[in-house]
Specification:
- The chain is of the alpha/beta class.
- The protein has a single domain, classed as ATPase, V1 complex, subunit F (Rossmann fold).
- The protein is 42% helix and 21% strand.
- It is built from 5 helices and 4 strands, in the order E-H-E-H-E-H-H-E-H.
- The N and C termini lie far apart (35 Å).
Length: 103
């Protein structure tokens, strides 16, 4: 059975444990890169990562963009957001439906 994880700063990701996600409170770039590789090699189908943490490891995330699994989804953090998460959602919706219906 596939699992879902969330990576980011403690304040932003702690609440996800109550939803049944595996939570990783990590923001150091080298550790986040290793964590993503470890999760991708395991049964994790979805990895949510806060925008600030994702900005630190964009090269690693880009390696998995063309992979079927895991899906890496950027989510907003409590602070330090870049807007990349919402842009990604809009792009995915437009690709799937042919039009950005979220505007």
């Amino acid at each position: 059975m596939y699992k879902a994880a969330v990576i980011g700063d403690t304040a932003s990701v702690s609440g996800f444990a109550a939803l049944g996600l595996t939570v990783f409170r990590e923001t150091e770039p080298d550790k986040v890169k290793g964590l993503i590789a470890k999760l991708a090699a395991s049964d994790f189908a979805v990895i949510y990562i806060t925008e600030p943490a994702a900005a630190l490891v964009s090269d690693t995330i880009n390696k998995y963009r063309s992979s079927q699994l895991p899906a890496i989804v950027l989510i907003p953090a409590i602070e330090g957001n870049t807007g990349d998460g919402m842009r990604g959602v809009h792009e995915a919706v437009e690709k799937a439906v042919g039009s950005d219906i979220l505007k």
